[in-house]
């Protein structure tokens, strides 16, 4: 029995936020999700707002789950990894469905990790798990605390292992988190879900 087995069946959605160093971290995590997973995974990675994203092209061949760029009003399907498109905030709405917004930047970012995490906390409450990975600003710290307040689980990449440790350290400093783990243990946790 692995140490995360007690989480099996508890989580419906995983929300992940990353910035600098995030592609490398996601490359270690997302391919570990089994094809049989019924999780919904929503990802905000800070990307340039003025260029098309290549994230679906990068991750589709590596992942066993379906990988898609989020489209406004699309129903959220289990067993799918959704990436935020450039220059839009990604949120989840009643349905559940995708909601995209061109509202103001949050933490100098659009998409913003906090915006995704806060909407996921509102909709999924205790059935959401938030993960903050490598990055160079404070985006994700407030959103992760919204997940904690809603009864969800909060996971942060070990700062000493992150390519850029500012985002993980800010998430830890903001309040309580359930796990601070290296990437291989985050992958193990995700596989157990």
TrEMBL record:
Entries under SUPFAM superfamilies matching the protein: Methylesterase CheB, C-terminal domain
Segments crossing the lipid bilayer: none
EC number per UniProt: 3.1.1.61
Protein name: protein-glutamate methylesterase
InterPro entries noted in UniProt: CheB_C, Sig_transdc_resp-reg_Me-estase
Keyword Flavoprotein: no
A Pfam family this chain is assigned to: CheB_methylest
UniProt GO cellular component terms: cytoplasm
GO molecular function, one term: protein-glutamate methylesterase activity
